[in-house]
Amino acid sequence: MKYIKEFNNHNAYATFLSSSNYITPNVSLCIVEDEVHYNPYVPKAALDILYSDANGNLSVDSNVLPASEGKTPIGLCVAGTGFFGVNEPARFMSLKYMNYTTPETGSTTNQDMYWGNYGTDIPTIDNIMTTYLTTYGGGPEHGYMNVDYYDNSSQTYKIPNPITVNNEWNLSELGTVNAYATTDIDGKNKTDKILATATAQSTWRTDTSIINASDAGYAPAACCCARYHTLGTQAGDWYLGACGEMCMILAKKTDINAKLAAINAIYPNDCISVLFNSINNNPSRHWSSTEYSNWFPYYVNASNGSVDYDKKSNGYNVLAMFTF
User: How much is the pTM?
Assistant: First the structure.
């Protein structure tokens, strides 16, 4: 049975425990209401693994579980519960790369994919500069940096820290506009906007494959993310992560690669072994759903930790994101 409701914070959980809805701890802290199970607040942390069992029940565990547990890994947490704000859910990256040949299931091998809609303006940045305020500061060790924006605000925003593989600051390719882009964590909404423009391939939701074209009316990267599904998830649950969400992969690349290798050792058919370092002689660039202009969307570079934008007609890696 799938859990379809979660408590957003400890206060909500405490209220539940003191309410008449809480029956007994002998039923795994859940109640039955119209045959719907409500699970208690369970925070997710970075590098937790998202699992599904054969019945589609989702769970998280910090450990790589043995195959005998009967669970399949489907995602890896890159930003834990509340990282971007008190009510923000955890973000998970897919354990497979998106594939326009097999969009339903993805692939453990990377594939060159266009962002699409070259020359079409998709207003995907929605005032990201003033969104997701945090009240504390930090530095590279926390995976984010502090920025005072051009409006002379003294507020501190949590921005993922683009770093090199050696965990050093690498801001040489991070321009002012790019710094604002890294605050964008609304990938689901951005993906929905992109999908609405995929009019040239009107049957992309049901076709066996996705047309990998960069022209106006095509959005292969977003379409593949939307078609992707796993045990316990369905088409529409996954999306193309916004720039800020994708930056969390950069900030934890070394640890993520170690976790991917450990998962792959037990579940090689369900997990990539490493974030790929090159594709068609390009650095390991991964598309985000954040658009810079009608010609250029943002990408993150898993090789050197940089964030920049490039032509929609260039082919880069695509990973899907999932909130839970």
Answer: 0.76
